[in-house]
C-alpha cells in the first residue's frame, strides 16, 4: 500500500472520510497495564525512549488493542535537546528537568552529535513501519522549540510558564539562540523520521497558548514556519500537523504563518473557529480528555458533538490533548467503536 492511500494520509491531503480516521495523543502510555509492565524494564524514561525494543513494543500496544488508524512513535520531545548536548534528565514524579538556560550551556551545544545520539529512535521508526499493519499511518513528531525551551529557563515547567516568559522578555537574544539551535536539530530529526518510514510528522507546541500576540508570532509561528520550510525544502511531499495548544484565537494566523498541512485543535476551540479553520486545512481533534475519563453519557455526547461539528470536512478524530493515566482502557474501546459507527 502506498503511504498516500492510508486513511489518515488521505485526510491530510484534504479528503473527507466518513467515518473519520481516529488515533489519540499519548495513546502509548500509562493508562495501559501492558505499557506499565514494559516501562518497569527501563531504569529511567530517557533510556526507555532510546531502547528500540521497548519503544517499538509500547508503540504497537494500542494498535493491537484498538486498531487505531495511526500509530505515533513512542519517544519524547526532550530527545532533541538531549541529542545536541543540553543537560536534561527525568525525575520520577517530577518529569523532565533541564539545567537552567545560559550562554555557557549554549556554547557547548553540538549539532554534529545528534545523528548518532538519535540513531536508536530512528531504528524504532524503521521497525515500526515494518511491523505495523500496512493500512496504519505511522506518525513521527518533535516538540516545538518554544515548548521545549519553556523547560529550560529555570529547569522545569510551571502551569503558566512564568519563568520562560519573563526570561524571553529579559533576554530575547539568549532565548532566540536556543530556539535557533532547536529549529536546526528538529528539521534534521523530522527528515530522518520521514526517511525511516514515518508517513507524516506532528509538531507539538503545548505551551503556545501562554504567549502574548508578539510572543506567539516570534516564539511559536516563526520557529514552526522555519521547521516546516526546512523539512519541506528537503522532502517536498512531507505532511506536517501542527498542534498549538490553547491558541484558538490565533489559529488562522498560525496556519497561514507556519504552512502546516493540518492543525490539531484542543478541546476549548469553539466550533465556529474550528469550522473556519477546516475550510483552510484539515483539522484533528478535539474531544476533551476528561470526557474519556468520565465515560458513559459524557463520553458519548462529546463524541457526537465532535462528529457533528467537524464531520462535514476533512477530520482526523483525536483528543484535544493527550490521554491521561487515569483513563479506563474500556472507555477508549468505547470511543473507537462509537467513532467508527459514524
Concise structural overview:
It is found in: Cytoplasm. The protein has helices at 7-12, 33-39, 45-49, 52-66, 79-83, 103-108, 114-131, 145-150, 162-170, 172-196, 213-234, 251-258, 271-278, 289-294, 296-310, 329-341, and strands at residues 70-72, 88-91, 95-98, 137-143, 200-205, 240-244, 262-264, 283-287, 315-319.
Question: Could you walk me through the main structural features you see in this protein, from its secondary elements to its overall organization?
Answer:
This protein has 342 residues and is an alpha/beta fold. It has a single domain, classed as TIM Barrel, CATH 3.20.20. Helices cover 51% and strands 12% of the residues. The chain contains 16 helices and 9 strands. It has helices at residues 7-12, 33-39, 45-49, 52-66, 79-83, 103-108, 114-131, 145-150, 162-170, 172-196, 213-234, 251-258, 271-278, 289-294, 296-310, 329-341, and strands spanning 70-72, 88-91, 95-98, 137-143, 200-205, 240-244, 262-264, 283-287, 315-319. The strands form 2 sheets. Strands 1-4-5-6-7-8-9 form a 7-stranded parallel beta sheet. Helix 11 links the parallel strand 5 (200-205) and strand 6 (240-244). Helix 4 (52-66) runs parallel beside helix 7 and helix 15 runs parallel beside helix 16. It is globular, with a radius of gyration of 19 Å. The model has no long low-confidence stretch (mean pLDDT 96). Pathway: Porphyrin-containing compound metabolism; protoporphyrin-IX biosynthesis; coproporphyrinogen-III from 5-aminolevulinate: step 4/4. It catalyses: uroporphyrinogen III + 4 H(+) = coproporphyrinogen III + 4 CO2. One of its GO terms (molecular function) is uroporphyrinogen decarboxylase activity.
Amino acid at each position: 500500500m502506498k503511504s498516500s492511500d492510508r486513511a489518515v494520509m488521505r485526510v491530510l491531503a484534504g479528503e473527507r472520510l466518513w467515518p473519520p480516521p481516529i488515533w489519540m495523543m499519548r495513546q502509548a502510555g500509562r493508562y495501559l497495564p501492558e505499557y506499565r509492565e514494559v516501562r518497569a524494564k527501563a531504569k529511567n524514561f530517557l533510556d526507555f525512549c532510546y531502547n528500540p525494543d521497548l519503544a517499538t513494543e509500547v508503540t504497537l500496544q494500542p494498535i493491537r488493542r484498538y486498531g487505531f488508524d495511526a500509530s505515533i512513535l513512542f519517544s519524547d520531545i526532550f530527545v532533541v535537546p538531549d541529542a545536541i548536548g543540553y543537560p536534561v534528565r527525568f525525575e520520577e514524579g517530577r518529569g523532565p528537568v533541564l539545567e537552567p538556560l545560559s550562554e555557557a550551556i549554549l556554547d557547548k551545544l553540538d549539532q554534529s552529535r545528534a545523528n548518532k545520539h538519535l540513531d536508536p529512535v530512528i531504528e524504532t521508526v524503521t521497525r515500526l513501519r515494518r511491523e505495523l499493519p500496512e493500512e496504519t499511518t505511522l506518525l513521527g513528531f518533535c516538540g516545538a522549540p518554544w515548548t521545549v525551551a519553556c523547560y529550560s529557563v529555570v529547569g522545569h515547567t510551571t502551569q503558566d510558564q512564568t519563568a520562560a516568559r519573563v526570561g524571553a522578555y529579559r533576554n530575547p537574544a539568549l532565548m532566540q539562540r536556543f530556539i535557533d539551535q532547536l529549529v536546526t536539530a528538529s528539521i534534521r530529526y523530522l527528515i530522518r523520521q520521514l526517511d525511516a518510514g514515518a508517513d507524516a510528522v506532528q509538531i507539538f507546541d503545548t505551551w503556545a497558548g501562554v504567549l502574548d500576540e508578539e510572543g506567539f508570532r516570534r516564539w511559536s509561528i516563526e520557529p514552526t514556519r522555519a521547521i516546516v520550510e526546512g523539512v519541506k525544502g528537503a522532502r517536498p511531499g512531507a505532511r506536517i500537523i501542527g498542534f498549538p495548544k490553547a491558541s484558538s484565537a490565533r489559529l488562522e494566523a498560525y496556519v497561514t504563518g507556519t504552512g502546516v498541512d493540518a492543525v490539531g485543535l484542543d478541546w476549548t476551540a469553539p466550533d465556529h473557529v474550528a469550522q473556519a479553520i477546516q475550510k483552510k486545512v484539515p483539522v484533528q481533534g478535539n474531544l476533551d480528555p476528561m470526557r474519556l475519563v468520565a465515560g458513559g453519557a459524557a463520553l458519548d455526547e462529546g463524541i457526537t458533538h465532535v462528529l457533528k461539528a467537524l464531520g462535514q470536512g476533512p477530520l482526523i478524530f483525536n483528543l484535544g490533548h493527550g490521554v491521561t493515566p487515569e483513563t479506563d482502557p474500556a472507555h477508549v474501546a468505547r470511543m473507537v467503536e462509537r467513532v467508527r459507527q459514524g
